[in-house]
Amino acid sequence: MSFHYHKRITLIPKLLHLNIGTHGWTLTLGGRRAHLTRDSHGRRGAAVRLPGGFTWRRHSRRNRH
């Protein structure tokens, strides 16, 4: 059995949230229809909800040189 922890802290209502979990943190900017994310591992993402139940998502990693 494994335990997981997740806590969502609202920094600016309906705009900016900090999600803290066992594997790090994620900062989310935006609302339910469209948002941008950034996590503690340097990954970035974007998501947009489209009519008809469709969702467009894009994830990218930080360049490591």
Would you kindly provide a written description of the structure presented here, covering whatever features stand out?
The chain has 65 residues and is an all-beta fold. It is 0% helix and 62% strand. The protein has strands at 6-12, 16-21, 24-30, 34-39, 44-50, 54-60. The chain has a 6-stranded antiparallel sheet, with no helix packed on it. A hairpin with a 4-residue loop joins strand 4 and strand 5. The model has no long low-confidence stretch (mean pLDDT 90). This is DUF4236 domain-containing protein. Residues 3-57 form the DUF4236 domain. It holds the Pfam family DUF4236.
Structure class = mainly beta
Q: Helix tally?
A: 0
In terms of DSSP E residues, the strand content is over 45%
Please give the number of β-strands: 6
Order of helices and strands: EEEEEE
Average pLDDT level: 90
Helical content stands at under 10%
What is the CA-based Rg, rounded?
Answer: 14 Å
Largest sheet: 6 strands, antiparallel
Distance between the termini: 38 Å
User: Which strands sit side by side, in order, in the main sheet?
Assistant: 1-2-3-4-5-6
The parts where pLDDT drops under 50 for at least 5 residues are none
Shape: globular
Biased composition (Basic residues): 56-65
InterPro entries: DUF4236 (IPR025330)
Pfam families: DUF4236 (PF14020)
Region (Disordered): 38-65
